[in-house]
Write a structure and sequence with these properties.
The structure holds two protein chains of two kinds.
Chain A lengths: L1 H12 L2 H7 L8 H22 L2 H18 L9 H22 L20 H12 L5 H12 L4 H8 L3 H22 L2
Helix pairs in contact in A: 2-3, 3-4, 3-5, 4-5, 5-8, 6-9, 7-9
Chain B lengths: L8 H7 L8 H12 L8 H22 L26 H10 L2 H4 L5 H4 L11 H6 L5 H6 L5
Classes of the chains: A mainly alpha, B mainly alpha.
Chain lengths: 191, 149
Amino acid sequence: MALFGTRHTDLHTLSDEELLSRIDTRNAHDRAFHALVDRYKEKLYRLLIRMLQVHEDADDALQTTFIRLWEKHAQFKAESSLYTWLYRVASNEALMLLRKRKKLPMDDADELPADVQGPEPQLNGEKATRLLLASLDILPPRQRAVFCLRYFEEIPYQEIAAMLEVSEGALKASYHHAVKKITAFVQQHSH
Amino acid sequence: MHPNNDMPEDCQHKQDPLQAPEGYFDQFNSRLAARLPLKKRNNWYWVASAAAAVLAIPALYWLNTEPQPVQPAAIVLTDTAPLPSGLRLDDETLATYLQQDVKPAAQTETSTVSQSAVPITNASLLSEEDLLRAGLLRAEEFETFDPML
């Protein structure tokens, strides 16, 4: 299996465009495709779990994102990077799930999610993190996406604008509103 | 302990409450592969080849068992004028009769009408004896026959 190992390593050194051109959609275990999955799955999961805060939803959105890549890779144009394209698809999937969730009746909007209500935090840092994540729940879907992409992923505004197809000005305003709401939420629940 | 991080694993988990479950990323690819819609292979070529082979077998069998058309006997002699192309002289009696008067060389000619046609001398140029023998002239007429008339 040394040969397989060598070829596997070689695939991981190829660029996104080269891997895209090698995808064979007749084989579900296509190595070029799975090399791309390996390259982006953890980054995308991090974004999705912060936006959705439920592992099952994040997993579902992540799989859907890669299925979109599988189906649309031939139409992918190098106008934007694959990384930007994947983040856009993942963000849109998460937004769709959040909008669906908003339609479901909620018992108490102010109540903290179960994760936050867990055992008493032992560290201030941990408590702050829990509050920060809980505060995302109060944000509208679009603001939540903008905040996650900018705050956690540290993606430049220009790229986020390309991902979400909105202007940079609208993005900055959206991020500013999100920060104000989160700050107020954390101050309210930190005592 | 994580190889690239000095922080103990339990502390890392506390830092990020939204961490993926253990082994999630290891199994992710196989679970994803099970959901991928596969593009069907282009097997029209093989289907077309198989269909052609299936159709060809009875066709070849039929061609081999079909009796070969029997060529009609070659024409040897014709009547006074060449026959229209494609017609054959099948009257054995006439053929036998005409055979007596043609030259032997004419009998070895090839089979087609145009190539084997042997013109017969016009009846008017035959001698009276020939005409009488052929029954075309009665005896009394022969006696009064004046070729100059």
